[in-house]
Design a protein that fits this description.
alpha/beta; Aspartate Aminotransferase, domain 2; Aspartate Aminotransferase, domain 1; 2 domains; three-stranded antiparallel sheet; 15 helices; 14 strands; globular; binds pyridoxal-5'-phosphate
């Protein structure tokens, strides 16, 4: 195949969806409550989120994490365990309220934190554990839930990558005490730019706290329900509500969630099957690690990645792919190695798996419109590069 440039990602934004969202936002401009109710119902059905869950739509997953941090009413020095291999948003939300992000190493075979990497970090100050479900592949939520129940910690799912993915049949983001999803334009479904949602049980004791945080820390929602005759400032809050156009777009786009997820899973499986067969000797020789899906998890095909042996192997592959018109990227710079990570966070264990992911991980193109022909070209390019450049 003679490739035109193959981008790394194409946002799931179409003219049809833009038109439908514009019409919808326009017709309901003065009735955002109605738009919110309608969008919430559509979202719930298509994302398969049960009625017992409360949904708070925000402008980003970052905001949803910030709301979690406020709702936990953390004190200075409280500790929140999270992977070092994550986006700064995960740590910022907690560090800005005075808590300490404590960085856990990855289990490289799953790319998530695990009980083994978390246990040495637990202390009397530990308040919460935040797995991220890297690339839309669930962390072991059975083990993490047990650990949290035993120790009295709150399980916060940063499922920014996780829309459409599940664990034991339940959507990611709905299993922990709190969870969030992202609709940023790099995610499988976008709200046309930014967007997020915070999820918790309707019966969770903090639901009213979250309602207040969403409304500038006031008890306006109780007032609107007729529970009081006036409302006033009760706690720290902010303006987090998703804007009308983003809601209208998400309402249209989320109807395509199944179609998008099925296609992305197909692409993910094709990468996985072909690399397993064609790079077998490089995998067994320790040059490449392929992703792995734990039992009970179903991925949404958000990211397909390879972990190469080291930074020089990764950069050589990336360079080769770029020369062939294929965009490929590394991902996070581990937070424990960053300036702010050293200032606001703590590292207490070996971080060798995280270091390896930081140096060796490469993400390949993955988006709804990627054709099998383009994908074959990418796979061929990776395989040929290994065969011609990497000595076993
Ligand atoms: C693990 C993780 N958490 C949180 C976020 C923040 O999501 P958003 O862009 O919706 O604020 C991201 C962004 O990609 C992320 O990768």
């Amino acid at each position: 195949m003679k490739a035109n440039k193959i981008p790394f990602n194409k946002p799931y934004m179409t003219t049809r969806l833009m038109h439908s969202a514009s019409r919808h936002a326009w017709s309901s401009a003065l009735m955002s409550e109605a738009l919110l109710t309608e969008m919430e119902q559509t979202f719930r059905i298509n994302a398969k989120i049960r009625d017992e869950k409360a949904l708070f739509f925000t402008n980003s997953a970052t905001q949803a994490l910030e709301i979690m941090a406020l709702a936990l009413e953390l004190e200075k020095g409280d500790e929140i365990i999270m992977p070092s291999y994550t986006y700064a948003a995960t740590a910022n939300a907690f560090a800005r309220v005075g808590a300490v992000p404590v960085f856990a190493d990855l289990d490289l075979s799953t790319m998530n934190i695990s009980v083994d990497t978390i246990e040495p970090l637990l202390s009397s100050r530990t308040k919460a554990i935040v797995p991220i479900h890297y690339g839309g592949i669930s962390a072991d939520l059975t083990m993490l839930t047990d650990l949290c129940l035993q120790g009295g910690y709150t399980l916060l799912e940063d499922a920014a990558h996780g829309l459409g993915a599940s664990y034991e049949g339940k959507p990611l983001g709905t299993i922990g005490n709190f969870g969030c999803l992202s609709f940023h334009h790099t995610k499988n479904i976008t709200a046309a730019g930014n967007g997020g949602v915070l999820i918790l049980d309707k019966k969770h004791p903090k639901v009213h706290v979250v309602e207040q945080i969403m409304h500038q820390g006031t008890d306006r929602v109780s007032f609107l329900r007729g529970e009081s005759t006036e409302y006033s400032w009760q706690r720290l809050g902010g303006e987090f509500m998703m804007s009308s156009f983003n809601m209208a777009y998400l309402e249209s786009a989320v109807k395509d969630l199944d179609v998008v997820t099925i296609k992305r899973r197909q692409l993910w499986e094709r990468y996985q099957t072909m690399f397993t067969e064609q790079l077998e000797t490089y995998i067994s020789g320790g040059h490449i690690i392929l992703p792995k899906i734990i039992e009970g998890a179903e991925t949404n095909g958000h990211i397909y990645f390879l972990i190469t042996k080291d930074r020089s192997q990764r950069d050589a592959l990336k360079h080769k792919l770029n020369q062939l018109g294929i965009e490929a990227y590394s991902h996070y710079e581990p937070l424990h190695r960053s300036t702010a990570g050293a200032r606001f966070g703590q590292t207490r264990t070996e971080m060798s798996a995280t270091e390896k992911a930081g140096e060796g991980l490469i993400r390949l193109p993955m988006f709804y419109d990627l054709t099998f022909e383009e994908q074959d070209y990418i796979i061929e390019a990776v395989v040929q590069h290994y065969k011609s450049e990497v000595d076993l």
